[in-house]
Amino acid sequence: MNLTKFADELPIPAILSPLQKNRNYTYYEVKMTEFKQSLHSELNDTTVWGYENGYPGPTIEVEQGEKVFIKWINDLPDKHLLPVDYTVHGAHRDVPEVRTVVHVHGACVEWESDGYPEAWFTKGYLQVGRYFRKPVYQYDNGNRPSTLWYHDHTLGITRLNIYAGLAGFYFIRNQQERLLNLPCEKYDIPLMLQDKTFNPDGSLYYPRQPDKPVSEMETSIVPEFIGETILVNGKVWPYLKVEPRKYRFRLLNAANTRFFRITLDSDQPLYQIATDGGLMEHPIGVKDILLAPAERAECIFDFSNLYGKNIIMKNGAPAPYPGGEPVNENTSIIMQFRVMLPLTSIDTSVIPAYLQPYPKLKEQSASKIRFLTLNDMMDSFGREYMLLNNKSWDAPITETPTLGSTEIWYLINLTDDSHPIHLHLIDFQLLDRRNFDVEKFNQEKIIHYTGAVQPPELQEQGWKDTVSANPKQVTRIIMKFHSYTGLYVWHCHILEHEDYEMMRPYIVIR
Which PANTHER family does the record associate with it (predicted)? Predict the structure, then answer.
């Protein structure tokens, strides 16, 4: 489908207003609905799902430490917008076809409010999953100021619910960050990057069969989904008019499978100031930023001396990453900046030399080391699927960290793909990556390193909740389980993998 690039202006999600706010707490209600929305002016309006009649949903902005209650309300139709695969665990015919549960990605939160994949609910809460505890979630927002996002997390259909449009931003702010004098208000803009493919009538396309079709199946899970067009904030290849000054952009990869390697065709540096878990210690100037699904990076782009210029934000990551198809004339383009607005006032915002302290967790403080494999398997229909530590979703829980303890996890990737591994509840630090002999490991269960230790990339030197575990490497992360006990999950954030067994529960115990 040949759609004109830069035909539509970038939409910026509205900030959600609370229903109640007082000294003690803030209360929101957020409804999930089906509606039509224009994703490109040359397409018919597309039927999508969203929060509060918007895709992406409205941005929720809170203060650090603010006590927030959110009632998530499922007001969706009974029939799914996209093909459900009933062979997938958690999506068999014994559960309703349309069900939802919301996870605030990156939030440090009690387990009952974390959006556990089996805590789903239907319209009017008429049917609920076995771990559903309450309709109103509590968020204490103890995180550092950061760019989080909220999205669906239902077992077996997360990939479909997010692709249908169930995603939005969630910002935590504080006074300390405001004093840094970063670009703010209308110069602080979230950018949600996704990819989609459309049917000729403008409806969303999602495959009903894998590349090698399974004849006896009505619908079938695919090992990954790669879309043909790139969307930002729900628009295909949009443009944004900017002033010749500094802007803060909050970049989020909310795609199902696609990685993005982001550059500007003006060859100017991107000044990264934050990772998933908030501000870094110092800003870094880089030419490109690689974002795996669910990763965030906050950057300052400086358009000061570029009045009259058009700048294209480009993508250079093959899909699937790292060994897939290179980008083409469509998938290499993300959006355009038009430096054409007059300066409304002198730009006094800064890129500070120092942002905030980044205390490194010490390896010797770890009381437990876990060795966890990423495995590639085949099912009885000849379809590929992935496992964590060779275990399926409902195998007995094996990861049981103690509250207050520090652990190091060795993520041993035996597959050909990079997997963005996400842990709920906590932020971690990336220690290093190292190549190893996969064949020797498969035969003898011994890690035989074949290369030097690779420290984190500059852009990963901060608090993370999602990390790329690259093929034929051991990726080491360190974290402290400091705030809540209870039942959480860790998983690959390639949604097609997560939905088909590449997710495991873990439990924080006293």
Answer: BILIRUBIN OXIDASE, CUPREDOXIN SUPERFAMILY PROTEIN
